[in-house]
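Researcher: Here's a chain I'd like modeled. Treat it as a single chain, no partners, no ligands.
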Amino acid sequence: MSATATSKLGWYARRLGRMSPAEVAWRVREQAVRRSWARRQVHPGQPAAGQPPCVADRRFRSPLPAGSDALVPAAARAAIIADAERLLKGEFEMLGVVRTDMERPDWFFDPVTGRRSAPEAYAFSIDQRDESAVGNIKQVWEVNRLQHLTLLAVAWYLTGQDAYAQRVADQLRSWWAENPFLSGVNWTSGIELGVRLINFAWIRRLLDGWAGVGDLFEGNDLAVWQIRWHQEYLAAFESRGSSANNHVIAEAAGQLAASCAFPWFPESDGWRRDSLRLLERELERNTFPSGINRELASDYHGFVAELGFFAGIEAQAAGTSLSDGTWKLLCAMADDMAALVDERGRPPRQGDSDEGRVVLLDPPEHNRWRTLLALGDQLFGRLDWWPPVTADACSALTGALLGARREIAGRPGQRPSRFPDAGIAILRTGAGDAPEIWCRCDGGPHGFLSIAAHAHADALSVEVRHGGVDILADPGTYCYHGEPEWRSYFRSTIGHNTAEIDGVNQSVDGGPFMWLRQARTWEIPVPEQNRQWSAEHDGYKSLRPSARHRRLVSLEPETGLVEITDLIGGGGGNVRLAFHLGPDVAAALDGEVAILNWGTAKTPASARLELPGELRWSLHRAETSPILGWYSPVLGLRVPAYTLLGAGQLARESPLKTRLLFSKTDKQAAHSPTGQVVSLGVPCPALTDAPGSQVEAR
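Model: Modeled as a single isolated chain. Structure tokens:
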């Protein structure tokens, strides 16, 4: 047996071990259905058998209200048209790659590896994880979400320029013809079908006034077949068990949106009822009571919220509403986004990120949360403590379709900084202090469900920003498929601002989207003054001798000081402590002191980083053997950045104290006239055998 085959068998064995008996039974049944559906495959070039079963009335019943185009701000309008013109020329950026083939995309081509998958292959015979067969699957799927066509449809809606609508029509007809039912890699994942259905609905809505829209959609049997096929697939293949994360929410949201926007089939009423039930149930299961998404990956919090927003808007437009409880949950997700962002509106960089978007009604931004907050304002209204939001096409058009905002009772009266169920704490300077010092502390569960697919081994990690600039940075994600050594690094303990013991991760990696053992983390009560946070994890209890890591983080706004105290308990061990700097930060290391500067950033400043003398410190940048000194701004892109790495053998319960002092404003200097770094004088709580306020672990 080849090494590749052995590796695959090992992965399947590990994956099986993370499933419950009920999930195993479900998957056995699902595999049987997949095999039986091979006879239903429609091959490229083969016409669909007969006309799709439809109700008599195929009208599209939820266009935008007249005059909605006038609500789109001028700046948003100009940006949309500029991107639409680029698309007409064939240019568009996706996942860090500038594509120049968008005049006529190859729906099966990966521009990163240059590979093209087989369009005629039966979908369920394709291993989408095999880069040699399909290329980088994220790059392939991204263009097949067809969100760029929604953006072109917005451009037509705002200008009436026929070239935009005609390009949409040409590419939709191309996609529908070249991706018939169950043929090719674009039928292998339900999340992709769900997102595509929501975009079908918005493309149809935006082109409602175009003369050719009826012939493109309801008068086009192939389009009707595709809308039906997508929904038949989602009704049959639901993500369950250890996979019931954001995938099942995308599937339910897409099914609900399509059954509301295109109620053209005898099954539409049943699909709508079932998907509404599924969406509400899974949104509740995937969300902490505080409103934080349980995957604890910031990007997926925004993605799941957006799925819920658009599904709710589509249902409302069709006269079907989500329950009051689900709207309240979605509102909490929006309020949490407003609470978590820094002064520039940037979210945390916790866990995996793939820039997941649902609908593009504005040009894509790397910081999607600004658009989501504007959408949340339209849905629920912004609270006084929210950061400012800027209206765009998305908020204007969805607001016009939805009508009145929803009134949600019991929203927070001031900006939350602690989310104990999710283990997230935000330490920040006051609203009047600029530039803002913002610090995210991670004391929550490792991730969601038995495989924690989008988690990183980052317990007790911190992110620190100054004026919105990454100083102590979470390096990001970079890739999902095809480069296993890079995938492993960006998920590793040493790839985050925390401590590694004896050269192993806190949690045990079982594959690119699977963890076999998950570190358990709990927060430790500390006094409220001076903006403090403390937590501990047990990820190293299996070492011999066992070890534990406890961390205390304190912020002193008046002096601009962030102090981190680490305590390694148990048997001590070989410890490596990493501090990863943002790509704008230059560093010079002299013994145990690093001078940091970010003079070219939007908010230039400097800082002094005093490092624990118990460790030997070294500076790294853009290294590949081993990998160290990298930052990924978006999926698919990595750039050099400095990493400070301390290493040494520690005795039992040796405290490690790190002090980060930012250059002072006049106000700060008045409180610390000597300009010296002064300890906050807060001791790290002693390690004990009994956990403190334990956070939920799954």
